[in-house]
Specification:
Elements (H helix, E strand, L loop, with lengths): L2 H19 L10 H20 L3 H28 L1
């Protein structure tokens, strides 16, 4: 792989991640709204992964979707534990 191509991949990945994270809920929000927002983020990241023609970007976005789902699950458990 050429050096210019690697730079393009990194730039594209950074832009996609920034786009998704810009819509992330505030860090101090705990509860159903944050978990719901994270699930939406996961769905969006998974959609980008499925539509991506580049295997590297697809794998990175799929991993990001898994991370968002894991965070949502943790928030859900925290919320249930409080009750």
């Amino acid at each position: 792989m050429k050096r210019a191509e690697i730079g393009d991949y990194q730039t594209a990945r950074a832009e996609i991640v920034k786009m998704i994270l810009d819509r992330a809920p505030p860090a101090d929000v705990v509860g159903g709204h944050a978990a719901k927002a994270l699930k939406k983020q996961a769905a969006k990241a998974q959609l980008v992964a499925q539509r991506s023609a580049d295997a590297f970007v697809a794998e990175q976005m799929s991993t990001l979707a898994q991370a968002f789902r894991a965070q949502a699950e943790v928030l859900k458990r925290k919320r249930k534990k409080k009750k």
